[in-house]
Amino acid sequence: MGTHNHLLQLGDTVYLEIVALDPEADGPGRPRWFGLDDQRKVGSDWDEGRRLRGWVARTDAIDAIIGGYGGIFGEKVALPAVNSSFDFAIPHDGSLPLDGAAPSIIDRRGKPRSLTTIADPGARLRSFTLEHPDPAAVEALYHELAVDRPPVIARGPRLRYRARIETPTGLKELS
Fold first, then answer.
1. Which of 10, 65, 148, 150 could bond 14 through an S-S bridge, CB–CB 3.0 to 4.6 Å?
2. Are 74 and 89 in contact (CB under 8 A)?
3. Average pLDDT in the 51-72 region?
4. 76 burial type by CB count under 10 A (0-12 exposed, 13-18 middle, 19+ buried)
């Protein structure tokens, strides 16, 4: 996708992935994932303290999800482009699904993500919360999608994620 990706373990089945444009990479020939081509939006989110912009949910049924919710999740894209090993749902314009209120969807084609190749700094996710002006609507969508272990959803003035992470130097919060 023409991005730099850095992964850190946050527990047995959870990891944090930091994704940024790679200015030296060829573009993917389509809008990049996570809304990264809209640098104005990425910059304004960053300036407003909205640095955690979304999350990814794994499924073994990406076609069914896209079939029922394609307007939210977009189309299935096989990644990487050469020797693809997983499918990712990306809206046609590359934006985050529902501006990040809905998770991005990944299908690893029946193979679990191996965390053995991901750096483990000893940090552990303690809580993950989504603030949203209409928490009932977000909860209803997560229920319809049968999301397992979604973020806690709380009322807030605008969409914002908060992750509390226990680190070797104490509890930290990312938002």
1. 10
2. yes
3. 93
4. middle
